[in-house]
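#random but structural
TW: two for the price of one
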Amino acid sequence: MTNNYLQNFLTISKSTLFFNLRKFKRRKNFNAKKTDEIKKHLNNLRAHGYSIVENFLSKEECASMIKSIDHAFEVYPEATWTGLKSADRRIFGAEHLGGLFNEFFKNDFMHQVGSQYFRGLLGNLQTLAGRIDAVEGNIGSGEGWHRDGNNFQFKSLVYLSDANPENGPFQLIRNSHRLSQILKDSYVLNLQNPLGTRFTDGQINTLLANDPDRLITLSAPAGTMVLVDVSAIHRGSPVEVGRRYAMFNYYYPSYDLTGRLEKFLPRLTPEMVIANI
């Protein structure tokens, strides 16, 4: 156990060091806007790994976007990603749907928050629009507990439908984005691959056994936005009733965007949209 912990400590520390050195050499400066609102969300992100923006969208805007998502699934089947049991359906590249989706993609506020949290310029790779249904045996959006990355990953999430405990609210494990906690959790789980990004329900139960309060469930009404560091362990919880609609922006360091779109296939392209006009 001790040898494994020391090995994991070295592996995780080395990964963090390389990431920070690359960031130091390649990050780009940007014009940071200083407002009380941005400061509040930065403080929340640094303290908790997430921050909530209430009433980001109106009920009417959410309803309109839900209709557009359902329509996109019908019109662009070749651009629809489908998960296990066909419960989780996604449109990567949803910004090309235009309207509110494109406004969300270009939103400067969340770009400012993310870039200031990173302390360097971020770029928004894409917008995801998704729906997950209460299919028997579904394991939730994201298909289980995971990290999006081991060192840094920032997303903005907007619930387009009410996210109640029964229909798949976003969940995360408190402090699991912090290096000190990552090392502790690696020890508790005796991980063979400390840089692995997928976790079983059994492993999460082990983490929660001594501290159940680490489980954070973000139930919220439609129109709520969550700004979140998804290097934390997280998931969309399994949907038990109805369905849940949401959209996400995927932010990466500006120097680390090249080649990433190819990892999100199938995806909607401008050519598909033009061909359907």
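TW: number two ↓
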Amino acid sequence: MAVIVKPCFNCEHPINMYVGQQVFGTNLGLGWYKSYSCPYCGYEIEEDGNDTTPDEIQKAVLDQEGTWLLDIEETGERAIFVVKILRKALNLSVHDAIKIKKSMPGKAIEGTKFEMNRLKQLLERQGFQSSTIKIPKPK
């Protein structure tokens, strides 16, 4: 869970909004959420979605929880099937799918921990091997 400091929608005092992502359901959908309870006026908000994670939330999660890689070791015909799964899961263009294919075997995609774990689970369901790796933050 990450935190975004924002003004309360009601009283405009600065509050901590808790944001994050989650994997849900048997189809392994990716969802997002945000919530806060203002200690000044008591106003509360809870919102979630199962569509594209809002940029502000994704940026906060990446900044605070780090960037992760999906490392795919499949080659040949198996790599083509992996790219088909990823293209469907991520709504990728043909151009982006080709870029991923060219990076295989190896570090194919990067994103949040939940995004990469979701893709890893989708691939594992079909018998493909992959792993997630946290990218070290620069010192």
